[in-house]
């Protein structure tokens, strides 16, 4: 299976055992699988397992796998599939796991110093200037923040939607977006 996408739609292309070339939008595959088309259901299931394999290959920052997979499945593509409400929740969850292991949990990570509630007087500086503060800012941090802005907005919208429901997490299918196996 290979994948192509425009701004709105993702297309899967594959060659079957008879060397016949096929292509279909992922939305169309999902729609026809829901309607009972066994072949499209099998293709979608195969693709879901392929995504899970890719995510597991990238666990614990396996940089060789991350490098190859991130070139083929970029942030924008994965986000487009995560946010597509026409896709089944388990497929969207596979894209969420892939995003986590390929693009979010990877280098470079910035060191976040925990707040110290107890200090020695000698560790407290006698003077702090704005220049000292600005020298600690990292421009690449803003670039990373902008790269994942749509993902952060998706997560925030999802969580706000869950909180506003009368019985949060009552929809078992929708819960697949928040449960990692």
From TrEMBL:
Name this polypeptide is given: ITPR3 protein
InterPro entries, per the entry: Ryanodine_IP3_receptor
Leader sequence segment: none
Gene Ontology BP terms: calcium ion transport
């Amino acid at each position: 299976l290979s994948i192509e996408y425009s701004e709105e739609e993702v297309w899967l292309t594959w060659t079957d055992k008879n060397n016949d070339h096929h292509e279909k939008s992922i939305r169309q595959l999902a729609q026809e699988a829901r309607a009972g088309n066994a072949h499209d259901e099998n293709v979608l299931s195969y693709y879901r397992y392929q995504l899970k394999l890719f995510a597991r290959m990238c666990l614990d920052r396996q940089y060789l796998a991350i490098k190859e997979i991130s070139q083929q499945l970029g942030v924008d593509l994965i986000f487009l599939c995560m946010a597509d409400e026409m896709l089944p929740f388990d497929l969207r969850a596979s894209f969420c796991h892939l995003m986590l292991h390929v693009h979010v949990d990877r280098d470079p990570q910035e060191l976040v110093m925990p707040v110290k509630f107890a200090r020695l007087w000698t560790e407290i500086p006698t003077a702090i200037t704005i220049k000292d503060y600005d020298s600690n800012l990292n421009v690449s941090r803003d670039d990373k923040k902008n790269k994942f802005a749509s993902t952060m907005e998706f997560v925030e919208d999802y969580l706000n939607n869950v909180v506003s429901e009368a019985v949060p997490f009552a929809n078992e299918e929708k819960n697949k977006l928040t449960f990692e196996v």
